[in-house]
Amino acid sequence: MKQYSAENIRNITLAGHAGSGKTSLAEALLFKAGASDRLGKILDGNTICDYDPEEIKRKASMNTALASFEYNNIKVNLLDTPGLFDFAGGMYEGISAAGTVMITVSAKSGIKVGTEKAYELAYDMKKPKMFVVTKVDDEDANFYNVLTDLKTVFGPTVCPVVVPVIKDRKVISFVNLIEMKAYAYDANGKAVETDMPTAEVSEKMEYRIDGLIAAFSEAVAETDEELMEKFFEGEPFTQKELVKGIHNGMNSGVITPVVCCSSTNLAGIELNDAPFLAGHSTIGT
Predict the structure, then answer these.
(1) Three-class SS of residue 94?
(2) Share of the chain above pLDDT 90, in %
(3) H or E element that contains 257
(4) Dihedral of CA 222/228/234/235: which sign?
(5) The model's pTM
(6) According to the model, what pLDDT value does residue 274 have?
(7) Distance between CA 35 and CA 215 in Å, rounded?
């Protein structure tokens, strides 16, 4: 078995309300990273993390499960914690061991009690944290309403990093605000760079992207005096400065990044690593 030094190990805990997509997200991340040769589904009872017969029967996590993969000589440990309150001890264990906490929020049902519990626990333990808005492909999903609610409930630290482009109630691409690039996905979940959204794609999107970029830049500026001065002078940040700002902001609690994805069709999955480019971990394709 390959040995890893402490600096080459990353522990990422998935936490959140029951049914918010933690296990499905873990499954998609492991599949995209090449640690699994098939994409398991909760309904089929064949996911890597929900392996206990009772979990398969209930279609819900009851224990904290560990799954790992290697990327660029870094061992990434995923800790999939239960969202059911009867098994809240698992969430406490998982977050206490985390280097970073990914809090899942359904784009369909939004913020729930389990969302707040996971955030509060990560906050109390001074853990870097981020939100992953899942199920953005659901016909009843509304990412931007959820983003607004996240800002309202959890305050100005909430910072969008990956956002969906929506046309006719369907997600047609995702924008990575660090790279300022848009990606569309085929039926197999393969990303292809595409044009940035314009008013022709969605009449609200061009205006919305401008506002998101401004909010993102302001959040990064809060992490460093030099960046704040540059922000007030109207100079755009380099990608390196954005990455460094997110890294520092997550570690200090000034920034809580928000990304989004669909675990069932793998759209946006590899973009979940955007905040981790700053140094906590990188999840590859």
Answers:
(1) helix
(2) 73
(3) strand 256-260
(4) negative
(5) 0.92
(6) 54
(7) 36
**Distance between CA atoms of 74 and 154, rounded to whole angstroms?**
31
Q: What is the DSSP string of 93-121?
A: HHHHT-SEEEEEEETTTB--HHHHHHHHH
Tokens of 268: 């946006």
| Beta-sheet pairing, 74-80 with 129-134 | unpaired
Rounded-to-integer distance, Cα 260 and Cα 80, Å:
18
Cα–Cα nearest to 235, from 227, 246, 225, 223: 227
State residue 283's pLDDT score: 38
Among 49, 42, 124, 113, which residue's Cα sits nearest to residue 81? 49
Torsion on CA atoms 270, 274, 280, 284, rounded to nearest 10: 20
CA-to-CA distance for 34 and 99, rounded, in angstroms?
22
Which residues make Cβ contacts (< 8 Å) with residue 180, sequence separation at least 6? Answer: 196, 213
Residue 271 to residue 175: CA distance in whole angstroms: 9
Residue 125 CA to residue 115 CA, distance in Å, equals 16
